[in-house]
Amino acid sequence: MEAVRKxxxxxxLDDTLIRTEARVLVRDAHGxxxxxxxPAEFTVxxxxxxxxxxxxxxxxxxxxxxxxVVKYTKTIIDTILRYGTRSEFGILTxxxxxxxxxxFLIRLFRSLFGVRLSNELIFAVSDQRFSGYKDRxxxxxxxxxxxxxxxxxxxxxxxxxxxxxxxxxxxxDISFYDDSRENLESFKVMRQAFPHVVYKPHFIxxxxxxxxxxFWESGSESKPLIKGANSVRIILEHHCAAGADPVILRGLAxxxxxxxxxxxxxxxxxxxxxxxxxxxxxxxxxxxxxxxx
Length: 293
Ligand SMILES: [Mg+2]
Fold this sequence. Notes:
The protein is an alpha/beta fold and 293 residues long. Helix content is 35%, strand content 19%.
């Protein structure tokens, strides 16, 4: 018998759905301020001995509501809705204090998308009440967890929420949108335990900054741009002084490679397909474009 499809689009908050000026503060054992981390930095930061996170800037609802909705992600949600969907929507954030955030997020989804976001599908994995609930749940099942929920990494906590709170409630088609590769990969690790679940991770990188950096660091010669002209437009808009001008795009499609300004990477078009290239054959080089020094 085929299982009923139960799907959800799950969104990270910081730098996926909204961007804010708020910073996570890092303090030493005496409470002195060591550094202030942007949300993206926070997701990968490993605290040193004696260091503690201070989330006070995120407790200010004013700061949260002054956050800017990431246009790239808004477009994704608009597109999902345009094609009609019976999916649920949910939030999976590293932030604490769900009570503070949930009313704002419910209002945001209603006013911006006309979507009813259900309170029970908003997960704030640094919320102390939520940690307590997770640990009591494990204890009730007779599993005394060797590591309490709050001591797991953000990625591990997110993966556990997907497994227990979504798959556990019957979701079997899960799209997860996050600007952290680590968060997206984390559920993949335990995916074999849930062979019936379709899991679709979506890396949110609105300007292609992270992916261009990854390509450059990978050392590989070429990377196909799967989404073709859509990706090319975003890349040129953010990494080429001339932008995504129609004349430039036409020149590219006719075989003239373009060198980006922010990373020493070329965009080329071959037989109608677009690629990133580390280098190009000399004959292909457009004499109007200065070469790599
Ligand atoms: Mg994020």
